[in-house]
Specification:
The chain contains 8 helices and 9 strands. It is α/β, with parallel strands linked by helices. It has one domain: NAD(P)-binding Rossmann-like Domain (Rossmann fold, 3-Layer(aba) Sandwich). The strands form 2 sheets. A 7-stranded parallel β-sheet has the order 3-2-1-4-5-6-9, sandwiched between helices. Helix 3 packs parallel to helix 4 and helix 4 packs parallel to helix 5. The structure holds NADPH dihydro-nicotinamide-adenine-dinucleotide phosphate and 2-hydroxyethylsulfonic acid. 2-hydroxyethylsulfonic acid binds next to loops.
Length: 243
Amino acid sequence: MKTAFITGATSGIGEAATRRFVKEGWKVIGTGRREDRLDALAADLGDAFHPMALDMRHGNFDEVARQAGPVDLLLNNAGLAPPMSDLQNADQAPLDTVIDTNVSGLVSLTRAMLPGLIDRKGAVVNLSSVAATYPYRGGAVYAGSKAFVRQFSLGLRCDLQGTGVRVTSIEPGMVETEFTIVRNGGDQAASDALYANMDPMTADDIADTIFWVASLPAHLNINTLELMPVNQAWAGFAVHRYA
Ligand code: NDP
Ligand code: 8X3
């Protein structure tokens, strides 16, 4: 039986991927901070699901890797965005949370899991974002964290050449999950407004894509994969005009 280690299994894309991989006969070790959600998943999914409470900001990642054992897939999905704000008006603490989670935790966990992934000739799938490539106002730290994830993924491919381990950066646009609720401090209405009347992608859309990437033949590596809802595209350049 193949094993996937999925961070952020308590919600959104990570939960959908957990359900998809279990349905396909994989064992899934799923992490997150909300233990009640991990317990609910365990009750629902049975023996194939192994919950592991983990805060990406301060995990003992060597111990996590020891407990997990070798895995066939590391899905680095846990992540979040700080409230939208120009940096000159932003509080520091939410920015630190994002960098510690999206960047530092992801690197530390990946480093610790690599020996087991090399043993299994497994795959690393990292959740980046279209924000890595297309900046927007108020999102500099989030975009920067996701640009790190993208470039880290490409660099990791170089380091792992010859090991058989594959690395993919998945870069979605708008997916309706708890992402925007979290970004807006729990404001469900703000999330509803963002995704209204535009058919956002679903967590299942991204889970299907991740499963497809993980199921490709061992000689084939998807380097980066960018997805958007049809109704999302790019804005033009912003031009400031003086009075
Ligand atoms: P959700 O908010 O629904 O899920 C985020 C997950 O990350 C939760 O399971 C949460 O678990 C976990 N998480 C957050 N912070 C931490 C932490 N410090 N330690 C451990 N786990 C943490 O959002 P999505 O499913 O949408 O997001 C998943 C990934 O996809 C993120 O990396 C996001 O940046 C990325 N993404 C999302 C897009 C979107 O439009 N939704 C688009 C592009 C990329 P818990 O709170 O229990 O710890
Ligand atoms: C978030 C994607 O398009 O909502 O990673 O900014 S988007």
